Amino acid sequence: MRTITHWIGGKPVTGSTDRTSPVFNPATGEQQAELALASVDDVDTAVRTAKAAFERWGQSSLSQRTKVLFDFRELVNANVQRLAEAISDEHGKVVSDARGEVQRGLEVIEFACGIPTLLKGGFSDQVSTGVDVYSFRQALGVCVGITPFNFPAMVPMWMFPVAIATGNTFILKPSERDPSASLIIAELWAEAGLPDGVFNVVQGDKTAVDALLNHPDVAAVSFVGSTPIARYIHQTGTANGKRVQALGGAKNHAIILPDAGIDYTSDHLVAAAFGSAGERCMAISAAVAVGSAADDLIAAVSEKARAVKVGPGREADSEMGPVVTSAARDRIRSLIGSGEEQGAKLVVDGRGLTVPGHDNGYWVGPTVIDEVTTSMDVYKEEIFGPVLSVVRADSVDAAINMINSNPYGNGTAIFTSSGEAARTFQRGVNVGMIGINVPIPVPMAYYSFGGWKDSLFGQSHIHGPEGVAFYTRAKVVTSRWPHVEGASGSSFHFPTSN
Ligand code: NAD
Prior knowledge:
about 40% helix
């Protein structure tokens, strides 16, 4: 059985314990590797290594850092297929979808290649006679990324390109479910010439996470995962004096107005609900049909849901793969059942789906549930599976109220041909990322990604300008050179300009 290791100080490291967890192939249900789980000592080794590396990397020039980033960009670009296949084998998503996530991660690397421009400070000449003021930003030190299973390449890439470009060193703690991409990334960093110890990977579970949160030499923590863990990470990390951004779960609504084109809308809803088996934090899981939009929409969505080709992620004609674990499959099936029990109408039922030749895979087919109400579990829970609930609303305002009453605020979308309705919607919803006739409005790398309410704890959204701010802190310098003509002398009153 293959063992998946840590990566510390520029090389694979087995670690100090024999604690492991199994890594499965969701399409077959077979175990394919053992994952080494870090001990507190292993985490300490990683942090000390990253801290030592910061001594030099934090002093490296912008030119040196940019060169490594450009080389890393080329290597990731050349390894998209290799990364995508590793992701597909452990996560289950289809290879074309996995390629897409690497591509979106690559865009953050490209953004970080522009770090000399992004780190330009400000300068105010002659704020007082002979006095200038200028500002610049410096790295924090050892930064940590704790990431979820659903994007094993893209989500870490939301973090470390910006953290490393700004001069920090980094420790990634990937999900236990699909850890292999992290080691490919580590190899590519080494090949790109990143000094040993700047990028490290610690594999593990709660033991590793807690050791990172409690380590005095960790300066900042970026987390992406479910809401209860995000809240815990934020509370524990900030209590320990660390800078923390913790992105949580989601329940993303799409509002469909009667004036939306049914063909266009149903195509996009089906892709947004069932792509990656619904295991996306920006997946649409609640379609809010306004007024007369419902019946035609449900007919079109159901027909397209039944046509989705479900199969192993490695097969070229598969559109949707399995879900990540047998536990996730059982939970999703049970939530679908609860919808029926609580009075909703199961229009397309994916619970019984089988894939010939893959009897032990973790399959759940696309599922459409109509007449869902906001009190049902299927509406309240983040299902994180291929399930689209259709809720009905009388008006745009009622739909906006529904969204704003939901504890999550990650992404949302409206389908309409009315600019007025779209504008009311974009201004009225308490949600961080909004799509207008775009169902999965993931911002480009040069904007920042983040939700509101229970979808994000902490002030900073991730990557883009907010990412640069998160991984750096500001200095403002007030300088006077006494021999400058007219520069005044010292005084006991509070300094003012002259
Ligand atoms: P998860 O919260 O179970 O795990 C995320 C990370 O936390 C993993 O590295 C895991 O090892 C660690 N972890 C899990 N339990 C822990 C505990 N008790 N103590 C300390 N650490 C713990 O999430 P997941 O199932 O891997 O991913 C799916 C979730 O992530 C969904 O809720 C999804 O919405 C969310 N997500 C959010 C975004 C976003 O941008 N807001 C993006 C992707 C995924």
